[in-house]
Amino acid sequence: MALREIALIGDDILRLKAKEVTEFDQSLSELIDDMAKTMYHNQGAGLAAPQVSILKRVVVIDVGQGLVELVNPKITKIGNMVECEEGCLSVPGKRGKVMRPQTLTVVAYDRHGKKVKYNAEGYFAQAISHEIDHLDGILYIDKVIEGTLETITPKE
Predict the structure, then answer these.
(1) What is the pLDDT of residues 93-134, one digit of tens each?
(2) Is 153 exposed, middle or buried (0-12, 13-18, 19+ CB in 10 A)?
(3) How far apart are CA 154 and CA 156, in angstroms?
(4) In angstroms, rounded to a whole number, what is the distance separating the alpha carbons of residues 137 and 33?
(5) Active site amino acids
(6) Which domain CATH number covers 49?
(7) pLDDT at position 41, please?
C-alpha cells in the first residue's frame, strides 16, 4: 500500500467526470488499498479516486463503522435534505454548510465485482453524497450555502 498525493482545488482533474470501472482486477484492489491508506493518513472520512488523480468511479468511506468500498456507485433513493457542515481533503482550510440527503440508498460493487447495497443515514449518507459528487466533478464548495464558507486553522 502506498500513500497517494491528494489533488487540491484548482487541479483540473477534480472537475472531470470519472469513468466506470470495467475490470475488477489487482490494480483496482491496489487503488482501493492506497486510497484507504491515504484517507486514514490524512484523517479524512472519505476519498474519491479523482482526488488521487485517478478518473475511475471508486470511493472509500469510513465514518467510524469500518471501511466501505464503493465501485461504480449509484444513488437509487434519497430522503429529506438537511443542512450539513462539510470540509474536504481537496479543499484544505475551509468548511461550509451544504444541503445533503438525511437518508439515501446506494448500490455499487466491491473490489471483487460483488454487488453491494447500503441504506445510509446521517453522516454516512452525507459522506456518500459528497464522495459521489467528486466522481461527477463537483466539489462541496459548488453547493455551499451562501455566507457559510469559512477559513479554519489547523489544530496544533
Answers:
(1) 999 999 999 999 999 999 999 999 999 999 999 999 999 999
(2) exposed
(3) 6
(4) 22
(5) 131
(6) 3.90.45.10
(7) 98
DSSP alpha helix (H) spans, the chain: 26-41, 122-135
Instruction: Examine residue 7 and state whether it is found in any structural domain, yes or no.
Output: no
Residue 3 lies in a domain: no
CA 105 → CA 54, 63, 77, 129, 151, distances in Å? 25, 16, 5, 10, 32
CA 7 from chain centre, in angstroms, equals 13
The per-residue DSSP string of 76-116 comes to EEE--EEEEEEEETTEEEEEEEEEEESEEEEEEE-TTS-EE
With respect to residue 1, please indicate whether it lies within any of the assigned structural domains: no
Query: pTM of the entire structure?
Result: 0.95
What SS3 state is found at 153? Answer: coil
Residues 47-76: b if buried by 16+ CB within 10 A, e if exposed: bbbbbbebebbbbbbbbeeeebbbbbbebe
How many structural domains is the chain composed of?
1
| Cα distance between the two ends of the chain | 28
- Which residues of the chain, if any, have pLDDT below 70? 154-156
Q: Which three cell numbers stand for residue 27?
A: 490494480
Residues written for the chain: 156
97's grid cell:
454548510
